[in-house]
Amino acid sequence: MNGLALQLAAELFPRGVTQYLVGGVMVAAGIAVIYLGTAIIPGNSTFLETTLSYVSNLSRLNQPRFVASRDWRVVFALSIVAGAAVWGLLLDPGVFTTQVQPWRLFGGGILVGIGTRIGKGCTAGHGVCGLGSASRTSLVNVVLFVGVAIVTAAVVAALGVTP
Amino acid sequence: MSADSTDRHPLFMPLVVLGGLIQGFGLAYSGMARPEVVLDFLQFDDFGLVFVMGGAAVVSGITFFAATRFLDRAPLTGDTYGRRVKSMDRNVAVGGVVFGVGWGVSGICPGAAYASVGIGNLPILWAIAGMFLGAYAQGYWRSRRASVSGEAVTTGD
User: Fold this and answer.
1) Dihedral through CA B45, CA A30, CA A136, CA A108, nearest 10?
2) Looking at CA atoms only, how far is residue B94 from chain A in angstroms?
3) Lesser CB count within 10 Å: N end or C end of chain A?
4) CB contact under 8 A, B126 and A41
5) Quick one: which H or E segment has residue B155?
6) C-beta of residue A115 within 8 angstroms of C-beta of residue B92
7) CB A42 within 8 A of CB B74
8) Which residue of B has its CA nearest to A143?
9) Euclidean distance between the first and the last CA atom of chain B, given in angstroms as a whole number
10) Cβ of A22 under 8 Å from any chain B Cβ?
11) Which of residues 72-91 of A touch B (CB under 8 A)?
């Protein structure tokens, strides 16, 4: 690589690329372990809906397939929490606290909850598993959510909202 | 799905735990558990997230390809391997747009939010509370309106 390419790489990837690549491979490896053992493709947003069936009698939330998978989805989500905690203990001792304002997290979270349920998936389901399945449906969903998120983040920043 | 709670292989839950641990570790390692890193990507300050989604999609693609082509049945459930292909309808587009606005406002998605709890990020509970509220609102609306929009059965996302 010549100097210009190096400069460009540093410009585009100020934190380098190693953590991103290794992290991404591990995200998929976690999915692959479960898939190879069970043939289940575990996403992350269905957990929201199935877990609500423990406390709600809404018919939509109590579909048989939701009730059937709700227990392992709770275990899966808690294991994700634990896996991140292990990383924190081993590689990054100390506590991370985001500076992004609570109203952004809460309001954005509501839309994430609605959108992933209407659209049949999230970053893991459509972005990782769907694209990995060469699914056109997932490609449409991913192009839309990434594109819209870029525009949204630009608008929020233009309004002077930081962090 | 034969993975309901009545008649499961004893290794089913341990495998789910193992997969979750690996994925959680990876989400934390990649930086996606930090909303700031995602917002940096969305604002073109750091394109690293392309490598997270790209790397993950390539690995899952190889896994799905190999399993559907060369493997017979899953050892713990006896189910056949498939790919993740959902039916295309208006909801896929509408949901993608709504999710995109939420992702752009908050910088967090479901899996990354769970991982964020693990790195001690307490404010992320606001996001998780919001996600549950949103999922409940959508479920409430769908329950009231018996839909015939041909929603495909999803086995997991």
Assistant:
1) -50
2) 7
3) N
4) no
5) none
6) no
7) no
8) B96
9) 14
10) yes
11) 72, 75-88, 91
Q: Do B142 and A60 touch (CB under 8 A)?
A: yes
CA distance A122 to B110: 7
Instruction: Look at the alpha carbons of B28, B29, B34, B37 in this order and tell me if their dihedral is positive or negative.
Output: negative
Alpha-carbon gap, residue B57 to B34, rounded angstroms = 21
The residues facing B80 across adjacent strands are B73
B10-29 confidence digits (pLDDT tens): 999 999 999 999 999 999 99
Q: Residue B141 contacts by C-beta under 8 Å, 6 or more apart in sequence?
A: none
Alpha-carbon distance A117 to A137, whole Å?
15
d(CA A41, CA B82): 9
| Closest-CA distance of chain B to residue A150, Å | 5
Compare all CA atoms of chain B with the CA of A16 and give the residue at the minimum distance: B48
CB contact under 8 A, A39 and B79: yes
DSSP A94: S
CB proximity A50 to B under 8 Å: no
> Å from B149 to nearest chain A CA?
11
Kindly state the tokens that stand for A136.
Answer: 């056109």
Spatial contact of B128 and A45, defined as CB atoms under 8 Å apart: no
> A21 and B55: CB-CB below 8 Å?
yes
Per-residue confidence in pLDDT tens, chain A, 163 aa = 588 999 999 999 999 999 999 999 999 999 999 999 999 999 999 999 999 999 999 999 999 999 999 999 999 999 999 999 999 999 998 999 999 999 999 999 999 999 999 999 999 999 999 999 999 999 999 999 999 999 999 999 999 999 9
Closest CA to B154 of A88, A7, A66: A66
Distance between CA atoms of residues A22 and B83, nearest Å: 23
Q: Which residues of B touch A117 (CB under 8 A)?
A: 95, 134-135, 138-139
Q: Which residue has the tokens 């700031």?
A: B36
